[in-house]
Structure formats: C-alpha cells, structure tokens
Amino acid sequence: MQSSIHIQQPRAVLPGRHFFFTVAFLAVTLGALSQVSAQTSAQAAVSAQTPVSDGAAALLAKFDDYRSRALQEKLFVHTDKSFYLAGEVCWFKIYYVDGAFHRPLGVSKVAYVEILDKDNKFVLQGKIALEKAEGSGSFYLPLTLTSGNYKLRAYTNWMKNFGPDYFFEEPITIVNTLKSLPPGANRSDPGTTPPGAAVSNYHISFFPEGGNLVKGIPTRVAFQVTDRNGKGVPCRGMIIDANKDTLASFRPLRSGIGSFFFTPPDNGVCKAVIRMPDDQLLTEDLPVAYEQGMVMNVSESTTRNLSESASGQLRVTVHSRGWPSGDIYLFVQSGQSARLARKGDLIKDSAVFILDKASLGEGISQITLFDGRLRPVCERLYFKRTERQ
C-alpha cells in the first residue's frame, strides 16, 4: 500500500452504492449513534405502519429474484496462529457456509487458499477438498520468504463471480530470521518509492454518511487516521472553507476513528487541517460536495444496557437539495434476507422513516435509500447486537 495521504473520492449521486463508506462508518458509529440528533418537520414523518406500496413491492421482488439466482457462498478459515517463522507449518481449517444463514453448504467441493505478499502477489497456493462443508490443510513456509506482513485468502470458484471483496482474508506475519529486512520495508512502505518522492507517515480517509456531501445540508462525516503501519493515531483537526473560516473541529474517539458534523458551504472546496502527534500539520481536501442530491442520517434512541439495545426504534432522516418532491423508498436487508421496504414522501426537501429495531436482523443490516425511479442514492450499514452473548 502506498504511503501517501488519501482522500476517498465521492461517486456520482446517481446511481451509487457506497459500500466502502459504510464499512468504515459502521466502526465509527457503533458507540456514537446515540449522540446523533436529527430535526425535521413532523409532517414529513413516515409511520412504521406504512403499507407496502407498488414501488416497495417492486424492490422486494427484484431482491428476491436476484437472491434466487445468485447463491452467496462464504468461507471461514481458522489458522493455528497469526505469527510464524519461516520454516514452520501454517495449519488451517476451512468452514463452508451459505452467505444468508451461515448454515453448512455442500455445493462447491474445492476451496482455493493463497498467501499473498505486500504487493498482493501470491507466494503460496493450494487446493483443499471440501467434505461435509469442511476442509483442512497446511502450508510449509519456505526459507525463501522475506519477513513481512502477508495475507491469507480463501475462495471457491463460484465466489470469483462476485469479486475479491467476497473472499475470506486474514492477515498473518512471517519472520525469516535468516534474512535481514530490506531497507525501508514495512507494511505501507515496501521500498518501492521513487528516489526524491515525498513519503507521508500518515493515511487519512473521510467518509460522508450515506456516501454523499451536498452543499447546504448538515452531514455526519466519519474519518480514520492511521500511521504507516496501519495503526490508528490521535490527532486534532478542523474543517475550513475557502475564506479560512472554521466550520467544524474533530478528534478521533479511539484507534484513529471518529466523526463530526458540518455543513458544506456553497463557496468552494473545504479543507481539513490536521495536527499530528509529531506536530506535523497536514492539509487535505474533503470529498467534493454536490450541488444537488440526498443525504441520509441514521440515529437511535439511547439504551442503558445491552439487553435493551435490541429494542427501540431507528430514525432515518432524509434531506435533499435540488430534488423534486415525491416518493422515495427505504429498503433494509440483512444476511441476504429482505427485512422491510417502506415508501415515504419527500416533502419540503425532507422525510423521516421510523423503524422498529425488532424488525431488523441481528448483526449488520444494509439500509439503502431509493428515489422514485428505484435508483439507489444513499446507503449505510447499521449494527444490531445479538441477544445471546
């Protein structure tokens, strides 16, 4: 991974499915959702008892049709440890399940297991037979391997239809005591930086909730700050506009992860000015704010203990700019099972959906907002704790 500061570039407002944001924003909001406040007019609220409309029914039908034609497989690989010396044997066991219910599956008969280096090039490969949804094997780690961080990856032939994002991956570390570490070699600086090129010690990413920034609409933005080794670092920062006026300030909660609220101005690009632990001052642009679009915010009622966290309600607030009033749709799925589909009315550029948390599946739920033409415009993830510990 190149060790330069990186700002995640926003995608077009339509169509878009913002998976990269939602994964990172999930980690930010597990402990901070109860602090989110949203203010919209009561006439824009959509009751949880809203009947399924034709558009919502069409979303459910399309989802069921896709799910029936696209079986999702999952592999889980259990290694004996995560730190190895060159010359040792890496033992592992594979569990093969379906992606929806995590039940043993018997479709694929072979799993492919690889160990990748820092450049994502495989150094070891193997084929493991799957019997009764399980398989086991091992890798001898040769003395030709260099010390460093590697990645163990596993997949089936069917999983290749959906891309590497669906593969199982686990980081492992291999140390070769017979070889010296190459100069400058570490996780984020493999020694391939051209001579004279500037090398940053930090990696910074910004993730607007729902995927978009829209001018004039208050939005929660998640961020992550890591060092060259991928570890979160503490910092202090502020958001300034073209006139160098401060719009917001922020600092991470833990592990370099945090979030802040701010309203993108109409005049120019916003910048983040961040002071790092070594007093280095970094200045980077935020993702570009659109002239028109939709912004989604998810909040929940405050709970006192884990037993209450599965109950209560979720409030999904939608704000828009330059968007015609009319129907919008909220679709929620978890574990590849549709949980609910609701129709709402975008009135005076806002709408609210009230959802019962009991209707959501345990674990991660994917919340997607569609416009009147059933095009996805915003998306994020929500985590519901399991009732059984």
Biggest sheet layout: 5 strands, mixed
Estimate the strand proportion: 35-45%
> Helix and strand string, N-terminal first?
HEHEEEEEEEEEEEEEEEEEEEEEE
The oligomeric state of the chains shown is: single chain
Task: Give me the count of strands.
Answer: 23
What is the structure about, briefly put?
With 389 residues, this protein is mostly beta strands. The chain has helices spanning 19-29, 54-69; strands at 45-46, 73-79, 83-85, 89-98, 110-116, 122-129, 134-140, 148-155, 168-175, 202-208, 219-227, 236-240, 246-250, 257-262, 271-275, 281-285, 293-300, 313-321, 326-334, 337-346, 350-356, 363-370, 376-384.
Describe the fold and architecture:
7% of the residues lie in helices and 42% in strands. By secondary structure, it is mostly beta strands. It folds into three domains: 27-69 and 292-384, Macroglobulin (MG2) domain (Immunoglobulin-like); 73-161, Macroglobulin (MG2) domain (Immunoglobulin-like, Sandwich); 199-285, Sandwich (Immunoglobulin-like). Strand 15 and strand 16 (281-285) form a beta hairpin. Residues 1-52 and 186-198 have low confidence and may be disordered.
